[in-house]
Design goal:
With 354 residues, this protein is an alpha/beta fold. The protein has twelve helices and twelve strands. It has a seven-stranded parallel sheet, sandwiched between helices. The protein has a three-stranded mixed sheet with strand order 7-9-11. α1 links the parallel β1 and β2 (27-33). The protein is globular and about 65 Å long. It binds nicotinamide-adenine-dinucleotide (NAD). Nicotinamide-adenine-dinucleotide is lined by residues 7-8, 10-14, 32-36, 38-39, 59-61, 81-85, 100, 104, 132-134, 163, 186, 188-189, 195. Residues 7-8, 10-14, 32-36, 38-39, 59-61, 81-85, 100, 104, 132-134, 163, 186, 188-189, 195 line the site of nicotinamide-adenine-dinucleotide (NAD).
Length: 354
């Protein structure tokens, strides 16, 4: 049986990754998560009792704890999904982003390097450190072109700058120490268990509660959307077949303006849950002051991972969005407990967010 140390496994992508990986079987997961506001044990309720899943509350910045976990469970891989991940929060207060995304990744790398250096033979050969990152490190595109693995880094927000910094550290640990690292840079994810501060769940939940649907600026910022399970499949593919030291861009080839996304969501909701007053959910759209430094367009060229590792997304934007809307409709208790803060025993007041 293989063992993976997953960090940030109580977050959005992390909880989907843990569930998806356990479903494959023959794997043990040690899940290290600090349980910040974004970490939610209720996102893992169905896997908490699995004998193949061990949850540990703690920080990637706690080198001794990570070393202890590595020595005790002898994983074949570390998958680093722990991060502060919300751009708006990084603008309001960058400090946590620096501590977790940069210093935390450094501490995790140090612990992994110490562990890996004392492995021998096949165990040492097959060990992998997979660092999960974002396409935002590449900055903003004009109307043409795509981010490739060779695109220069040009991060524009404290969030993307902190992720860029962590990517550089990961790269350096390969070049300097030979640590067998893999880095993935992925486009915007959506799907079940996403914290409702992010665009798609925020719009669904506000629509269901008849609240305004806030769209930044003119709504013409473009993002490339990927269903979270497709991202999880890509991560396992990179872990299985990726070349140490390599970077793989992951994207869904689904470029949409924010306004397009909100329109599509409104149309879907009009179909599955028409409003009582007969109006479309589109009536709730409200344009709000743009985010400072808002990147205009991200678009991923994912041809390397397709060509070299044979990964392709399974979902289209339409099928993925349909599943997502259905999931939020069927899992009201999960998100109502997030909105009122009871998922962590305190009131966050997120229900009052526009
Ligand atoms: P998230 O905010 O939903 O989850 C992050 C998790 O990390 C939470 O469970 C949180 O408790 C945990 N965490 C935070 N600080 C920690 C620390 N110091 N030690 C241990 N755990 C800690 O984020 P997400 O959307 O699941 O993103 C996961 C990773 O994927 C991030 O690195 C992010 O940059 C990257 N990514 C996200 C997207 C996206 O669209 N969501 C796209 C590309 C890349």
């Amino acid at each position: 049986m293989n063992t993976i140390l997953v960090t940030g496994g109580a977050g959005f992508i992390g909880s989907n990754f843990v569930r998806h990986t356990l479903e494959r079987g023959k794997i043990k997961i040690i899940n290290l998560d600090k349980l910040t506001y974004a970490g939610n044990l209720e996102s893992m309720a169905d896997v908490m009792d699995s004998p193949d899943h061990i949850f540990v509350q703690g920080s990637i910045g706690d080198r001794n704890l990570v070393k202890q976990l590595l020595c005790e469970y002898c994983p074949n891989a570390v998958v680093n999904l722990a991060a502060e991940s919300h751009v708006d929060r990084s603008i309001d207060g960058p400090a946590d982003f620096i501590h977790t995304n940069i210093v935390g990744t450094f501490e995790l790398l140090e612990a992994a390097r110490a562990y890996w250096s004392q492995l021998n033979g096949a165990e040492k050969e097959s060990f992998r450190f997979l660092h999960v990152s974002t396409d935002e490190v590449y900055g903003s595109l004009g109307p043409e072109g795509y981010f490739t693995e060779e695109s220069p880094y040009a991060p524009n927000s404290p969030y993307s700058a902190s992720k860029a910094s962590s990517d550089h550290l990961v790269r350096a640990y390969h070049h300097t120490y030979g640590l067998p690292v893999l880095t993935t840079n992925c486009s915007n994810n959506y799907g079940p268990y996403q914290f409702p501060e992010k665009l798609i769940p925020l719009m669904i939940l506000n629509a269901l509660d008849n609240k305004p649907l806030p769209v930044y600026g003119d709504g013409q910022n473009v993002r490339d959307w990927l269903y979270v399970e497709d991202h999880c499949r890509a991560l396992l593919t990179v872990l299985d077949k990726g070349q140490p030291g390599e970077v793989y861009n992951i994207g869904g080839n689904n470029e949409k303006t924010n306004l397009d996304v909100v329109h599509t969501l409104c149309d879907l909701l009009d179909e599955v849950l028409p409003r009582k007053d007969g109006n479309s959910y589109r009536k709730l759209i409200k344009f709000v002051k743009d985010r400072p430094g808002h990147d205009r367009r991200y678009a991923i060229d994912a041809s390397k991972i397709k060509r070299e590792l044979s990964w392709m997304p399974v979902e289209t934007f339409e099928t993925g969005l349909h599943k997502t809307v259905q999931w939020y409709l069927n899992n009201q208790e999960w998100w109502r407990r997030v909105l009122d803060g009871s998922y962590r025993g305190e009131r966050l007041g997120l229900g009052n967010k526009l």
